Input
Amino acid sequence: MAVKGYKAAARRALEQQPEVREAVTRATLHFDQNRERAFGEVEAEAWRDWAAATKRHTLSRLDGYLLEAEQRLSARGAEVHWAEDAEDAQRILRELVGRYGVRRVVKGKSMLSEELEVNGLLERLGVEVFETDLGEYIIQLAGEPPSHIVGPAIHKGLEEIRALFREKLGTPPDASPEELAAAARRVLREAFLTAGMGISGANFVVAETGTVVLVENEGNIRLTTSAPKVHVALVGIEKLLPRACDLEVFLQLLARAATGQKIGTFVSLINGPRRPDEPDGPEHLHVVFVDNGRTSVLADREMHEALSCIRCGACLNACPVYRQTGGHAYGQVYSGPIGIVLTPGLKDPALADELGYACSLCTACADVCPVRIPLPKQILAWRVRSAGRAPATERAAFRSYAALMTRPRFYKLSGKLLRLAAPLTGAPWLPVLGAWAAGHGALEPSPKSFREIWEEEFEGA
Amino acid sequence: MRVCFFVTCLADQFFAEAAADAVRLLRALGAEVRFPRAQTCCGQPAYNAGHWDEARKMAAHTQEVFEGCDYVVLPSGSCTTMLRAYSPRLFEGDRPRYEAALDLAGRSYELVEFLVKVLNAESVGRGLAGRRVAYHHGCHVSRELGVKEEPLRLLEAAGAEVVPWEADQECCGFGGVFAVKNAPVSLAMADRKLDTVPEVDVLTSADGACLLHLAGRAKQRGLGVPVRHVASLLWEAHRGG
Output
């Protein structure tokens, strides 16, 4: 499903799936307005400053906090694993599936597992996987990747979901949203009771206490992490917070930034596997700390702040570019502004050559980021790196443009030529503008340049 | 008070009358306006495209052109942002140029911002009485310069009714190199703006580039929304009393 090449994919989305633009625009505007209202209820600017500083501090001592978390987790009986890349993480997971003889997995709340292609791995191992978040379950049925960090099925309208559920689950053609949810619940309830392993991500891991923190609205994560005998939490190494008391602000900031809620409906604080005197919970807890490119982002002077991201999706919701196409056009796990910044760093700098330009530099994302990641600045930094690899024609065009613009006489002359040529030829002086110009009525230069008006009207006046 | 007018390259060629209206207005309000002839383009297209060597050359040229001006006034929020916020970043490794960039940044104003913050104009005239106006907040002028209320205040002081517009803060989709590299998305963004424009007599903004983009798209779609730069509207406000 993931399409390589943003340009082509974005065009295709707009031409062939106009309903995506409509659904995504509606949903993101809704989220964005909720965020704005929810930020207005608190001292949001002070919270953002504090959260940004806390994250930057954590990143600057990440190794220490990771070791602290490992020590606390191990002391409570959790097994901690370290994965350098996706292959490594897959190896660990394969080993765990084998060790516990797992045939069924319930899974939820993990963009990282998308990065690691966990579902593909499990299916190859002959393990059945059930996504337990309703949105994720919908796109799993549709055979698609998530298109939004928080709302994985944000691009789908009710009609499309009705048709999908009718085909896959046999629901009536006019099923209400409640009936559709109930149909999914029936399938998933059975899965929760029979799965041998639950796989989750983590919103935060507290170093001080070794606590895996998960935030959700549906209750599925509680079941995923407690019903099966084994719980595996896949955690990006950037998810650390120093102290338990840091959660007070981060939990509120995350929910407010993501959906405008005061706090997520369910917050799970997981400190270890079930203890002998506890009635429920998994017998085994495995925490897999995953690097998968993160240390190279951390080492990047211009990009490291992107690791502060708490995956709230606010930048996607605020992004007018994202709204036109949804997330699939980016062809990557992380879409929108944060995706543009993170993806080339995590995977391959050359990905910035197209992704870096999936942005109008409107800076709306910087206005909403709860941890103040300088996204527009970073997107621009990727462009500067890409510019050296730009097509020779582009580089030559900018060179001549700069040459022209530092020689006032040539600038004046070329302006004149432009205005003389335009009425004769339509707009051939804009061939480089191609499709953009084609989407416009003729752009007519002024009959006289400002310079000429100045000379006639203002000179000496 | 020596005010140097930086017409900007787009305005020079594509909305010269609006730029002239800006000068007419500044003069009418008592500013002594000069026009340094050697000025060209601020370099933002190269800056935004990532071609910083070229952007640096152009920004250095602009620094030299506007040396010695008390104020530099531009009829463009976007180009003002280039001088105010972006240009210094280009010279972080070059102290004299960096300081010159900061110095120029401190003297540069978008037109409406200048009218309100430096000339202390609360009203330029009442000539827009009864006109219904939709105001597009250019991204740079509103977010990078923080100029949001000023244009609305002047338009309303001129008697215009600024009609609420759902998408007034959203990007028009131009973004320079973005419009060229991702034209279909850029046009879809313009459509979103145009599809939500309320019933008004005129659509205006402090950014000519956005207006050029929106007007071109409106024309292509056969929408009859008159588009005018805020400088022209304010000059009209002044002339009309």
Summary: Strands of chain B lie at 2-5, 32-34, 71-74, 108-110, 132-136, 161-162, 202-205, 227-229. The radius of gyration of chain B is 17 Å. The longest strand of chain B covers residues 132-136.
